[in-house]
Amino acid sequence: MEKIKSLADLKKKREDLQSGIKLREQGDNIEEMIQVKVAMATCGIASGAKQVMDILINELNKRNIPAVVTQTGCMGYCYAEPTVEVKKPGQEPIVFGYVTPEKAEELVTKYIINNEILEGVIPVNYESIEDK
Amino acid sequence: MATYKYHVLICGGTGCRASQSNKIIDNFKRLLKENGLEKEVQVVETGCFGFCEKGPIVKILPDNTFYIEVKPEDVEEIINEHVIKGRKVQRLLYVDPKTSEHKADSKHMGFYKKQLRIALRNAGFINPENIDEYIARDGYKALATVLEQNDPQATIDIIKKSGLRGRGGGGFPTGLKWEIASKNAADQKYMICNADEGDPGAFMDRSILEGDPHSVIEAMAIGGFCIGATKGLIYIRAEYPLAIERLKVAIGQAREYGLLGKNIFESGFDFDIDIRYGAGAFVCGEETALIHSMEGFRGEPTFKPPFPAQEGYLKKPSNVNNVETFANIPVIINKGWEWFSSIGTEKSKGTKVFALAGQINNVGLIEVPMGITLREVIYEIGGGIKNGKKFKAVQTGGPSGGCLTEKFLDTPIDYDNLLAAGSMMGSGGMIIMDETSCMVSVAKFYLEFTVEESCGKCTPCRIGNKRLYETLEKITNGNGTLEDLDLLRNLSTVIKDTALCGLGQTSPNPVLSTIDNFYDEYLAHVVDKKCPAGQCKALKRYVIDPDNCIGCTACARACPVGAIKGEKKLPHEITQSLCIKCGTCYEKCKFNAIKIQ
Ligand SMILES: Cc1cc2nc3c(=O)[nH]c(=O)nc-3n(C[C@H](O)[C@H](O)[C@H](O)COP(=O)(O)O)c2cc1C
Ligand code: SF4
Ligand code: SF4
Fold first, then answer.
1. Domain B6-113 of CATH type 3.40.640.10
2. Domain A29-123 is of which CATH architecture?
3. In the predicted structure, residue A24 carries a pLDDT above the cut 50
4. pLDDT band of B1, cuts 50, 70, 90
5. DSSP readout, A36-60?
6. Which of B125, B134, B259 is most worth mutating to test chain A (most A CB atoms within 10 A of its CB)?
7. Check: CATH 3.40.109.10 for B351-434?
8. Among B3, B61, B110, whose Cβ lies nearest the Cβ of A132?
C-alpha cells in the first residue's frame, strides 16, 4: 500500500475519499446507492447484529438492489439493538431499532423497496461536530 | 405497487404521549383515510425526539419538516396545507428566539439536541475496520498538523488552553500532565492508554475502541510527540475481544499507510503501539498498578510520588491517559481550543460520555456537554423511569462514587458539582434507580465488589472494607443497631484517610453518600426492622390477617416448610421462626388475607 507522507498527501487522500472518486473508479457511485449500516459493537453483536447483516446482504443481493452494507460501531441505542441505519440517495438517513432477523427482511421488502417505514424508528437527537 | 410519498413521524415518548400524541396519530390516520391519502402517506410512531418541553413533535419526511407543540386539532391543517398543497404550516414551526426566524428543519435546530458527540463522533458512523473511512472524516489530520508544526510545546499549550481534563475518573488537566512528562528528560518515554475499564456497568471506552479505534491511535501518536515518547502501549482487558481485534486491525492499517512506524509524515518522528492485556482486575485500572501489571509484576498500586511522569513503565517517564481523553484530542487540534473550551462549564470543558443503565427506558450510551442537568439526562435523553415508576436515586462514579437524590436533579453535571454533591464523575457509569431500590442494599452491592477487588496490600482497605460489608449485611439481615450506623461512618472516614490507593480511598463513598442522603432508610432497617423498598428478604414478614382468613388451608398445604398452622375454617397463623419468606402462601391465598409487613 502507498504510504501517506505529508499533510498534502493526506489532504489529497481525504478529498479523493470524500468525493467517492475511488468508488467511482471501481464503477460504483456511492451517492446513488442505498447505504445500509449495521451497528456492530459488542452490544449489537450480542443481540444478533451479525445475523441481521447477513440477512440484509442476502435479501438485497437476491433482488439485485444496488446497495452497500457496512458495519459500524455502537450508535448508543443499546436498548433498541440491533440497530440499522438506512440512507436512500438524496434523503436523510433513518435509524431503525429492534431489527430482529424477521424485521431485517421486512426492512428490505418494506422500507427499501416499498418506502414503507417500519416501527422502531429512532430519532437522532445529537449534534455532530460538523454542526457545531 | 403503491409507495409512500410522505411519512409522518410522531413522537411516542412518554412526554408526548402525556400530551395526547396518541390522539394526533388517530387524527392523522382518520383524516388521511377520509382524503383517500392513506396509501400515499404513512403514519409512524417513533421513539422520543428528546425535545419533550416542546412536544408533541411531528416530523414529516422526506422534507424533514419539524413541527412542535402540535395539538390534535392541528392535524387537519397539516394535511390540507403540507400534505396536499406542499406548504409548510408556519405557525407550528419552531421560532428561533434570537432571530425570530421560523426553523423548519431539525438539522438547524442544534440547541434542542441535548447530546453533542465529540468522543463518539465516528462511533456508529464509520466502519471501524476501514482506515479510509476515518481519513475521510478528517482522520490523522490533527497528527499531520502537529508534526508539520513541529512544536511540541505549542501543541501542549493548545491542550492546556482547551481545558480538557482526564476522563478516567480523576479529572486531572491533560495538557498539564503532558507538560510534566515532556519536561522529564530520558532516553525512552512511554505513552500509555488505559483501557482497563473495570467499573460495573461502564462500557464507554469499549464502545470508542470498537467504533473508532483510529481516534485513540492518532491521539496517542500526538501525545507521544508532545512528551517525547516513541512507544505507545494500550492496556486493555482480555475480556474485550472485539475491541482488541479492531485495535489490531487499525494498528495494522495505520502501519501500512505509514501513520505509525518510522519517520511519520517524513517528519523524523517515530511512533509505534503495542497492546498489553489485563486479566480484568479492577485495581489494575489504577495507573501505578497498571504499570506494574504491564511490567509483569503483581497488579498492586504503589505510593505516589513517584508519579508515572517521573518513574513509570520500566522506570521511564510515562504518561497514562484514558481512552475517552484520547478520543477528544484530534478534535481539539482540528477545531481549536477556543471551540472546545466554549462547550461545558467554567471548570469542566467539553463533553462526557455516560453509560445509562438501570431502571431507565433508553439504556445506552450518550455523550452530553458538561453542565447538562441530571433531569435532562434522565427524562429527555433517557426517556424517563421504566414502567412509570418514581425516580429515587442515580449512582455515578461506580464503586468510588455515590448516590444522588431528587434534590440534585437540576444540578449541572461537572467534576466539581458532582464532588460537592457527595459523588463523583468517575469514568461515566450512570445507574438509575427507582422507588423499589433499597439503598442499604445498593451500598452493600458496591462494598461486595470492593472487597472482591481489593488487592489486599494495605490494611484499611483489605480489612476495613470487609468490616463495612459485614456491618451492612448485618443491617440488611435485620440485626443492625444505631451504633452500627456510627461505626459505618467512622470506619468509612478512617479508610478514606489511610488507604494507599484510589480504590480504598474512595470505596466508602457509596456507604457515606447513602447514609447522608437516605438516613431514614437506614433508620427504618435498624430501628423498625423494616425495609421500606421491600427488598431485604430477611426483613420481610408474612402475616395472616385473621379478619380476612376463612381457614381454607390452601396456604398451609402449599408452605414448603410447614410454617403455617391452623384448624380448618379458623384463621391460620404463620410461625415466623420457621418461615423462609418464599412468598408461596402470599400467591396461594385467594382471600387477600396474607400481608407483607
Ligand atoms: C481503583 C481505580 C481504578 C481505576 N480504573 C480506571 C480505568 O478503568 N480506566 C481509566 O482510564 N482510569 C482508571 N483509573 C484512573 C487512573 O488511575 C488514571 O488516573 C487515569 O487512567 C488517568 O487518565 P486520565 O487523566 O485521562 O483520566 C482508576 C483509578 C483507580 C484508583
Ligand atoms: S487501597 Fe485497597 S486496592 Fe489500594 S493498595 Fe490498598 S488494599 Fe490495594
Ligand atoms: S390461604 Fe388465605 S384464607 Fe386460606 S387459610 Fe391461608 S390465609 Fe387463610
1. no
2. 3-Layer(aba) Sandwich (3.40)
3. no
4. very low
5. EEEE-SHHHHHTTHHHHHHHHHHHH
6. B125
7. no
8. B110
